[in-house]
């Protein structure tokens, strides 16, 4: 029997433990069936993007679109909004489920990003306008909803117009502007799943099922799947922990690929009168130096940092799934470090902190924000990081070079202006 490393409880994890989980447990088979279906929307990476999700929802709600549902989906959406408004004690402009059922919505207009409002529905003949704000992984701004409401009131403030405001979210969140109706995907998705497509329109049915299935898997709590997960963890905790600890790290793969081409990267960074060379690297930090600075007095007097003994290095660092560009002044001889400290202290990244005795972050910028590892496109992510980090190196070198040359070369005695910090 092949033995794998111990789990967190100290018990050995064996191959047969993983086999019992993956092959022998019917609950795992049920989970695979529920989650293992191909979904075009997930393949297109729209799961957590408010813009693509808003585009899809608006298209399905629009009765003029050729999806085969007519106004059925819009009617269901409005009914759920009215029910949510009543439950929250928020006025619904006289609308009730019955009146929504009887409302002629065939000519309703559905617009995206009208005055920055995610979705705007206008039923001209009924003098009804519905503003919808979506939130996926973000929260409302302090006066965002109030501003949208005032815009709608200004445009549709004439006699007889009814205005409905819907705040659609994944997690419970009270709208700061109290006329907005809080509606969750948890309530909306099951209601939309009950809408029947006209007979014979299989494409429309499949498209809606795929869209709602994606929402359910990622943004709606499924009690049946939660129970399956509970049973699996109760029966296979060690095996599941082993798998979770070894989940593929997309950014780790990106950095491994970048580390293999640091010399090529350095060549691509050249521009604005500066060239760059690769320095000593690690698994989470790729280091580069500005070649034009190597001749500055004291530059090669670093202590216990890299083999090049450079005092000032650009670093591309990996913090989990974030890629961060930095320029650091490292430890060095007292005289040499003092020269660079005098030149660079006014530019340091955190002006509210005193420079450290060994390290000082001169400039810092996040160049890639977190995203799920499975969503990382290795080639595209690598190219994006190279381009953004190269821009950071060039622009930072241009900004700091005059101060370095005037202060370091003259022995730290030159005066220089109070510049804006490098972002």
Salient structural properties:
12 strands; PD-(D/E)XK nuclease superfamily protein; plasmid; alpha+beta; single chain; five-stranded mixed sheet; elongated; 423 residues
Q: How would you portray this structure in words?
A:
InterPro entries: PDDEXK_4. It is a single chain. This protein has 423 residues and is an alpha+beta fold. The chain has two domains: 40-223, no CATH class; 250-408. Helix content is 43%, strand content 17%. The chain has 14 helices and twelve strands. The protein has a five-stranded mixed sheet with strand order 3-4-5-6-7, sandwiched between helices. A five-stranded antiparallel sheet has the order 8-9-10-11-12. β8 (276-278) and β9 form a beta hairpin. α5 (72-88) runs antiparallel to α8, α8 (185-193) packs antiparallel against α9 and α11 (250-259) packs across α14 (378-408). It is elongated, with a radius of gyration of 29 Å.
Topology overview:
Blueprint: E1 3-6, E2 12-14, H1 15-24, H2 26-35, H3 40-43, H4 50-61, H5 72-88, H6 97-102, E3 109-114, E4 117-123, E5 128-135, H7 144-155, E6 162-169, E7 181-184, H8 185-193, H9 202-219, H10 223-245, H11 250-259, H12 262-269, E8 276-278, E9 285-290, E10 312-319, E11 322-329, H13 334-344, E12 360-368, H14 378-408
Parallel strand pairs: 5-6, 6-7
Antiparallel strand pairs: 1-2, 3-4, 4-5, 8-9, 9-10, 10-11, 11-12
Helix pairs in contact: 1-10, 2-10, 5-8, 8-9, 11-14, 12-14, 13-14
Question: How would you sum up this structure in a few lines?
Answer:
Keywords: Plasmid. It comes from Methylobacterium phyllosphaerae. This protein is 43% helix and 17% strand.
